[in-house]
């Protein structure tokens, strides 16, 4: 039964994808390149250079990347999206509108920066030597952005058009970024935050799409192993890890917060773990950490009965350290991070190790067990049906 459902799921999604075939031609690309010649912000020269560079790419970026480029361009030159949502049958217009409005209220300056990074990343893939010559830092990350400054490693979940849903690639990139930050002596603290209006919408449900039914068990096995490695990277991260929850958080992005050393949330953030609605089960060590933090009945309310918490509720339950006003969120978080960054790093690491060692073994056990259960869940009819329902509802919109 699960196999049959899976086939139907794939064909529905394929239809959705073809509707999203946009900005396909070089002509369209050039059109949006030349829209709004005037750019605002602190990176004007680099922004102009990135626009020219986009025109010289040999390979067409895929549609998702093109959408992201389009959205960032609009945000950088016009500011937040305030045009009406296009009608249901204007698929291209709707996709573009969603990508642009998905950036929320990020500043024009930040949009310019992200635009420049994407184009330079694409150009760097085609010609790494050229990028280095231009004196730009070549980044190997595609779906996150990692910056290191003043002892702070910032990891930005960077798929704003998809509410920063975590693809298989993004899981791997986060693991790699944490590993790199843990080994880099210039880094004393790491911060994770999200681009756009969401912190993160959890596991990308597309990870389960377009899989041949005969390959489902392998997908579930590989997914289990990747999730195990992902959560392990959080359990064993040796330096202070701070979550800057800039908007709503869903699924695994909520559960792993229990493994952070401090979590700051804007008052617009929400915390939702709709596992049973999706036929799935808890991960990120939440089956162990959440009852300890908030007691069994409150943990069950989240993990079994899908209650979405406000930032203040999450703070009362010990999942969030402090709730900060949305308007001054970045600044307030920065002040707290800078304070941690200037503390004697070895002392902080030893302190963290003392606390973590109390329960490290239990956390690893919980992680193993949760991943095993999830492997089975991903193959269950309940889960396949729930994911199919998510994408068919979207296709009908
Ligand atoms: N997996 C795959 N795609 C996701 C996603 C996810 N977890 N979260 C968001 N997206 C995609 C949407 O499909 C949409 O894509 P489209 O533009 O190609 O249609 C895009 O991101 C924007 O999301 P949208 O649903 O239009 O925004 P919204 O503000 O109406 O709703 C959410 C945002 C997060 C509430 C909604 O997308 C959602 O429920 N996502 C699923 C969350 C989830 O269940 N995660 C797993 C938990 S275990």
From TrEMBL:
Cite the ACB domain residue spans from the record: 43-128
Where does it localize? Peroxisome
The cellular component terms of Gene Ontology attached to this UniProt record, alphabetical and capped at eight, are:
mitochondrion; peroxisome
Q: Name one GO molecular function term.
A: fatty-acyl-CoA binding
Name where it mostly resides.
other
Q: Describe the reaction catalysed, as an equation.
A: a (3Z)-enoyl-CoA = a 4-saturated (2E)-enoyl-CoA; (3E)-nonenoyl-CoA = (2E)-nonenoyl-CoA
Query: What name does this protein carry?
Result: Delta(3),Delta(2)-enoyl-CoA isomerase
State the gene name recorded for this protein: LOC118417198
